[in-house]
Automatic annotation (TrEMBL):
This is Ribosomal large subunit pseudouridine synthase D. InterPro entries: AB_hydrolase_fold. It comes from the Eukaryota. SUPFAM superfamilies: alpha/beta-Hydrolases. Gene3D superfamilies: alpha/beta hydrolase (3.40.50.1820). It comes from Cladocopium goreaui.
């Protein structure tokens, strides 16, 4: 039986030669096979890049997981509700928004938490860090909190200008002044105000802290009404930065060198476009690219340059000097400090703050 089985399994060389001689590959089959190989190679390379990127950027994978959980919770009807207040800066006459939770917190709260989201987002950001922070029970039930949005975000619309730096504390200072948090003459409702900035919002928080600790001079118009030292007001101010860059431009330039699946500048560019569409900024900057293509840092850079030039042109026009926007265009590096954290001194460390949880 073994000899019979071996004989049946033996391949006749002549039969094999006949098969190879009669084998014909059509042009259509050839290109189909070649495309299949190329597609398999591309998928393999992408999966390899994906695995390597998530290994080297594990925090990114954690963020994506957290965002997925947050947005699933929203789809299930567990979304945080807000009451939106639109404020207007006393001098600039531009709008900024403050979102208060619904239902309202305890009216007798002695501590207020001001949460500042990133520059390209608002409290409904897909990143989910505001929701994650609220779910962590850091804020006690007896404490008050709100979400601060700089000019042109959080449903606030541009009125006269088209530009403000992501690290420009002008509007946050105006909000603090409205709470009498920086006035030793009038009483503040809260004994302590803690500003927590996430991502680029952390730059804004620390830039505000820098001006509160050491005002530059009387020429600084954002501090005309600030009449306070660190101990001049019964309201204690604290500032916290969470996972913040020190320069937006260099951070996004670094993102462009990451693997494709780790290109965070792509979703951030799309969100940047959506925020500008909602605030009306896209229509106030005719010289800027309207559609986000390519949806990368290059689009954000070009649009920001156009918004800055448009803002300068509006200033000159208000003074009676009409100038073409194209003549005023400058590279992003020209106003880099408006998107970077430049502390004038080391901020003093304060005692730790702890919430009492039930």
């Amino acid at each position: 039986m073994d000899l019979t089985r071996a004989k049946n399994s033996f391949v006749d060389p002549r039969a094999l030669q006949d098969r190879l001689r009669n084998f014909r590959l059509s042009p259509q089959g050839f290109w189909r096979s070649l495309l299949s190989l190329l597609l398999a190679a591309c998928i393999s390379r992408y999966l390899r890049s994906l695995a390597r990127s998530f290994w080297w950027h594990r925090s990114m994978a954690s963020m994506l997981f957290g965002s997925t959980v947050v947005n699933l919770r929203r789809l299930l009807g567990q979304r945080q509700r807000y009451r939106i207040e639109i404020h207007q800066h006393r001098e600039k006459k531009e709008e900024y928004a403050v979102w208060w939770p619904e239902p309202p917190r305890a009216p007798s709260a002695s501590r207020l938490w001001i949460l500042v989201p990133g520059g390209m987002s608002d409290a409904d950001s897909i990143a989910g860090y505001i929701d994650e922070f609220l779910q962590s029970n850091v804020i006690a039930p007896s404490e008050d909190w709100c979400v601060f949005h700089n000019a042109g975000t959080g449903t606030a619309r541009w009125q006269h200008g088209t530009f403000t730096g992501l690290s420009d504390p002008t509007f946050l200072l105006d909000f603090l002044q409205g709470l009498n948090a920086m006035d030793s003459q009038n009483s503040c409702r809260y004994r302590e105000i803690i500003t927590v900035g996430f991502s680029v919002g952390g730059m804004l928080a620390l830039a505000t802290a820098s001006k509160v600790v050491k005002p530059m001079s009387g020429k600084d118009k954002s501090l005309v009404h600030v009449n306070r030292s660190l101990s001049g007001s019964p309201c204690r101010l604290r500032f916290v930065s969470v996972h913040s860059p020190d320069c937006v431009r260099t951070t996004f330039e670094a993102m462009t060198k990451w693997a494709f699946c780790a290109r965070l500048d792509i979703p951030l560019t799309l969100h940047f476009w959506a925020v500008n569409l909602r605030s009306g900024l896209l229509f106030k900057c005719p010289g800027g690219p309207w559609f986000p293509w390519p949806p990368t840092w290059s689009y954000m850079r070009r649009f920001t340059e156009a918004a800055w030039a448009q803002n300068e042109a509006l200033k000159l026009e208000a003074e009676g000097n009409a100038v073409s926007v194209e003549e005023l265009k400058k590279p992003f590096e020209h106003f880099d400090d408006s998107f970077a954290l430049r502390l004038r001194k080391v901020l003093p460390a304060g005692p730790g703050s702890r919430s009492n949880h039930s």
